[in-house]
Amino acid sequence: MSKKYTLTAALPYANGALHLGHLAGAYLPADIYARFLRRQGKDLAFVCGSDEHGAAITIRAKKEGRSPQEIIDHYHALNKKTFEQLGISFDIYHRTSSELHHKTAQDFFLQLLEKGDQFEQKTTEQYYDEDFKQFLADRYIQGTCPKCGHEEAFGDQCEKCGSTLSPTELINPISTMSGKTPVLKETTHWYFRLDQHEAWLKEWVEKGQVDGQQLHDPSQWRKHVLGQCLSWIEGGLQPRAITRDLDWGIKLPIENAEGKVLYVWFDAPLGYISATKAWAEEQGKNWEDYWKGEDTELIHFIGKDNIVFHCVVFPAMLKAAGDYVLPKNVPANQFLNLEGKKFSKSRGWVIEQHQYLQDFAEFPNKEDALRYALIRSLPENKDGDFKWEEFVALHDNELADNLGNFFNRVLSFIKKYSAGKLPAADLDLLIQGSEVGSESSYKTFCQTEILPLVERLEKEIMAFELRQAIQTVLELSRLGNGMFQNNSPWKVAKENPKAAEVQTVLALGVQIAACLNILLEPFLPFVAKKMQELLNWSADLDWEGLKAKLAEGQSLLAVGHALAEPKVIFAKINNKKDKRWSDLIAQQEQLLQDRLKALEAEAKRKAQEEANQKRLPEIEFDDFTKVEMRLAKVISAKKVKKADRLLEIEVDLGGEKRTVVSGLAKFYTPEELLGQQVVMVVNLKPRKLRGIVSQGMILTAENPDGSLSLLQPWKDMQDGALIK
Questions:
Q1: Tell me: the pLDDT tens digits for 265-296?
Q2: Count of C-beta atoms within a 10 Å radius of residue 198
Q3: In whole angstroms, how large is the CA radius of gyration of the chain?
Q4: pTM for the full predicted model
């Protein structure tokens, strides 16, 4: 049986527009991989769709005074259209509000229920928003993480330290709906017995084995994926609620369960299965072949905030059902930042996909210019960053000067020296290779220079190393530019345009251009289509066919094949004669700067409000007199090893010397402190910090932004003077 592939991309909530971070996190990598598999002739189902249930939808509906159906219809249509415009080539973009999905999810629940040991009912206390009269989903409760102190942790996970949480673990929880502290109320729910799956899940994640069968290679999984999964499993798996008290969602298909719907984390991943069912019905295929076949590889493309659901929870559900395949790989990306700061829709620090397309409506190759910049910044193993300055540099230096320049040279030379038609190549004629002084024939150049890049690219894509893969593609165009430069056919053509040296170099240039066209398509499909038009070629050669022709030194295009008129593919952004595109980028940069200023102003306002509210309780005068403060002179200071914020400071208290460890390193250098008089609490009990005994505390004033300033006397005072 031939191998089948099922590729899933995380189902986006249909409660808002998607931004560039979403595109880089899951959808662009998934599309590249899917397009490459199709070029290889693989049988695959590439599925996605809108996640249209859960509290996120009802919250948005209540805030906007619309029905949940209106919300999901609007954003499903918007996101679906935007994906299409950006070339994301899903085989189907489905909806979890469909009748087919409701039945699929309910049937799956009943299948597990019939087993008798996969669910349990429990009555517990859960957070309830009294203003909105609604129990709160975990993601709609925020508070301080009990493990790292991050003040904006969610009820299910802290995105700063990655810890999995429950809402009741949060310190100072608030409802993101009303901004008020929620109350705990009793409710009864059905729980999936995830704890029963702990042992096999650990072996599957850690060793890739289940029941003695090797199902995947852990060395091929990303370290942060394995680390997060094992941390979660080793922390002890607990039963997880699969129902919620909502009036919007998939009704629980059993008696005495009024007002209960399937929780979105249980419902949503089943959307992959229902989407595959809908696609298979359209194509006249059997959906089970893509979810239950022994020859099927299931691959999930997600962001790092969804790792445990796709690598622990969903696999447990699939195995509990009994006959589904488990994920072969989950190449989860980390987060993409925007100009050094985390994307935040609520704060306006965001570039939405559809807004980019609108703002850049007239920009040539706007889709692929964006795809290229994002590919080069993909957060595969650590957080990435999208910057307009880099967008311009990548576009002009790599796409225009390298790729576009090479393609234009090929077509222009063919038109000038071969009447626009592919000349015959002398396969044995020696030519200068990519490096000055290196020589090979046309045939060996294909075999030893081009083919290795093609084979390397294949390995990189199959290993999900897409940032490196796109650079391998560009390496081929650099190879072509180098080949032209080293051979300089225009010099020979001055005497004899029909010379074998000229014709062979031109033929080799077309060979590289045609090969580039195929290699580039998974990454930049719109540009690849333009290249096909310029080459006057369908580019319908499959991957193995491409490698076979290169191995034999055979031309990808027939001798005499007519090429189209040369055209510039990439118009440079930094162009002295045409300022339209540089002005557009400048507008985008200014827009972000304006947003940044607004964010900083808002942060300062909130910080000042918090500072004003942080008043300590009143004390008696006798309490104040217990604190002994004196002036001290700094006589030495140095940084504390392996502590970015700390300084070890020696002070003179008027004849008595003491050592103090102080968090001033980010605000003062050791040299700036020498000779300065500071205010110091001298009767504070000593304590050890980083192995150093600190014998007091230096006092500072703190701004709302966290910056510190020393307190110092106006007039000259003696060291050791008492502060009253």
A1: 899 999 999 999 999 999 999 999 999 998 99
A2: 16
A3: 32
A4: 0.83
